[in-house]
Specification:
The structure is a single chain. The chain is mainly alpha-helical. It is built from 15 helices and five strands.
Length: 323
């Protein structure tokens, strides 16, 4: 059995790209009886960006509700809130004391903002070591990562190797879990869907809101209704193909190529696919947000299970370094 770990920051309600690209695949892995999954909400990482307590708290509930609404069985997986396991910050400190400053300056999370140091807090600078602690604290063997997080996993392996070399075999070196089928989800502007680009689609919005977002924000070209269109270059089709059935996607592609089928028709079909395709998730999400006690219970139970593992690993680390 492989222990798999992954987390998502609580920077807002997960959008369609988060759900299709990270949450749904992680739930599929968690449902595999050959896997032992640890899934967490990285609310401490979010503090590098968000300095509003109520907003951070609401974001955390939104992320938890999304996982649960999308089918996560919290009794099978260890599902927890990062801040409920304080052992992670202690391990992060030990790791920071073993990792070179010069390597930390090369981290993308810092380097991308290093030209404006007034915008960089110490938490952002040390972000990779907290992420390493997230992984190493639970003996994680496989970590699903996208290309943007690959460097951080390399740092995790590096600092674990340094620790093991200095103090003896103590920490498990995690392996990257990648897939050739990793889903790229385009945003409404055609670029990768991202909160920072303000091009996201929230599947939990009602039908009217989704229609407004798709009609006003989703980019299309000026090809006349009667002319043939290339579906493979159209954002609306790329999104539709991800959320509709294969037969419906083929039907739209054929209609676009034939002509007489406009972008308005395609957008209408996309809205319907989003509304109907995520109806059960939307209902469940709203139930959970309206009844946060259910979320609290699930996270508390998960934190208890997570701390049982974390305390054992941390005790092992403390003994090796002299505490």
């Amino acid at each position: 059995m492989a222990r798999i770990l992954t987390g998502i920051q609580s920077t807002g309600t997960p959008h369609l790209g988060n759900i299709l690209g990270a949450i749904k695949p992680a739930i599929d892995l968690a449902n595999d009886p050959l896997n032992d999954s640890f899934l967490f909400i990285a609310d401490m990482h979010s503090l590098t960006q968000i300095k509003d307590g109520e907003r951070l708290r609401n974001n955390t509930y939104a992320v938890a509700a999304t996982w649960m609404a999308c089918g996560l069985d919290t009794s099978r997986s260890v599902f927890y809130r990062q801040s409920d396991v304080p052992e992670v910050t202690e391990l992060a400190w030990y790791l920071q004391c073993l990792f070179p400053y010069s390597r930390m300056t090369l981290a993308h999370s810092f380097k991308d903002k290093s030209e404006r140091l007034e915008d960089v807090n110490a938490g952002l600078f040390s972000y990779p070591m907290l992420m390493a602690a997230d992984i190493l604290l639970y003996n994680a063997e496989k970590v699903p990562v996208g290309k943007d997080q690959m460097q951080h996993l390399e740092m995790t392996r590096d600092v674990a190797s340094r620790f093991n070399h200095k103090f003896g075999e103590t920490l498990v070196l995690p392996e990257v879990l990648t897939s050739e089928l990793t889903m790229y989800v385009p945003g409404t502007d055609g670029g990768k869907m991202s909160k920072s680009q303000d091009n996201t689609i929230n599947i939990f919005d009602d039908a009217a809101t989704l229609k407004k977002v798709i009609n006003k924000q989703l980019v299309t070209d000026a090809t006349p209704l009667e002319d043939p269109k290339d579906p493979d270059s159209a954002v609306v089709y790329k999104l539709y193909k991800l959320v509709a059935s294969e037969s419906d996607a083929q039907e739209m592609a054929a209609a676009l190529r034939a002509g007489g089928y406009g972008w308005g028709h395609a957008k209408k079909a996309l809205v319907e696919a989003l509304v109907d395709g995520f109806a059960s998730e939307r209902t469940r999400y709203n139930e959970l947000i309206s009844n946060r006690e259910e979320i609290d219970v699930a996270l508390a139970q998960g934190a208890e299970r997570a701390r049982a593992v974390a305390s054992e690993v941390l005790s092992r680390v403390r003994g090796k370094i002299g505490y």
